[in-house]
Write a structure and sequence with these properties.
By secondary structure, this protein is α+β, with helices and mostly antiparallel strands. The protein folds into two domains: 45 residues, no CATH class; 73 residues. Helices cover 38% and strands 14% of the residues. It contains two helices and five strands; from the N terminus they run βββββαα. Helix 1 runs antiparallel to helix 2. The protein is elongated.
């Protein structure tokens, strides 16, 4: 199934959602195409760059970091969902307090924000220099 992407300087820059950008700046490419791959505007053909090309190495690192970040969000989503559910029960006076104290939950909120703040799609960011922040309590992440 094809996917929608933005092209910058003849390369796939970022995967986008329908309606996220005007249709004239979005291109449809095969599903196997990845960030950093070459894109020919005349033919619409995509190809992977040579393996040893610095841009190819950076694109592979960037793709891996994006996947790692998405996995962390997914594995920690239950914490946010439970907190929201418990807050509703506290408001309804069914529970006295949430499982996570407010200060601990604030640590999770700060960590999620730090993950969102990573400039992984910015071509100026060297993905080799990006460090994924550690979660407040890694034992709570679901596998």
């Amino acid at each position: 199934m094809p996917k929608l992407v933005l092209i910058q300087h003849g390369r796939i820059h970022e995967e986008v959602q329908p309606g996220q950008f005007p249709p004239e700046v979005v291109r449809e490419v095969p599903d196997e195409a990845q960030i950093g791959w070459l894109y020919d505007e005349e033919t619409g053909a995509v190809s992977s760059p040579p393996e040893d090309e610095p841009e190819a190495v950076a694109a592979r690192l960037r793709t891996g970091l994006i996947a790692q970040r998405a996995s962390l969000f997914k594995r920690s989503a239950w914490i946010r969902e439970r907190q929201e559910d418990e807050l509703a029960l506290v408001e309804a006076e069914v529970l006295e307090e949430t499982t996570l104290p407010e200060a601990v939950y604030a640590l999770w909120l700060n960590w999620w924000q730090a993950l969102r703040d990573l400039a992984l799609s910015d071509p100026e960011t060297d993905p080799a220099e990006v460090e994924i922040p550690a979660p407040p309590d890694a034992s709570l992440l679901e596998d």
